[in-house]
Design brief:
The protein is elongated. The protein has about 100 residues and is mainly alpha-helical. The chain contains 5 helices and no strands. The protein has one domain: 434 Repressor (Amino-terminal Domain).
């Protein structure tokens, strides 16, 4: 499972989420786990067993309830299913708008 920058769009698609960069990794993990579940057409109960969490936790994830699923849980879930998680960091180029005066 490779987490890519494109999942940042997920944060902006849900205006109820504060636009905090601290939420980006959670949003990315949620998107990738959801994609994994959808691709394999897993029922919520089956996904819960595979990832070692409860069905309500999978339901919260499926509904995009970012505040109900901790980053720790999101990192542990793929590991429990024998899925390797890779984190890639990249330097962001600052625009003049973001530079300090």
């Amino acid at each position: 499972m490779t987490i890519e920058y494109r999942a940042l769009k997920l944060v902006f698609q849900y205006p109820a989420w504060p636009l905090s960069l601290a939420r980006v990794p959670r949003a990315q993990l949620m998107a990738e786990i959801r994609r994994f579940i959808q691709t394999r057409k897993l029922a919520q109960n089956s996904a819960a067993k595979l990832f070692g969490v409860t069905q309500p936790r999978i339901s919260a994830l499926a509904r995009g309830k970012i505040d109900l699923v901790s980053i720790e849980t999101l990192v542990d879930m793929p590991a429990r299913a024998s899925i390797r998680v890779q984190l890639r960091l990249a330097q962001v180029r600052r625009t003049p708008h973001h530079q300090a005066a």
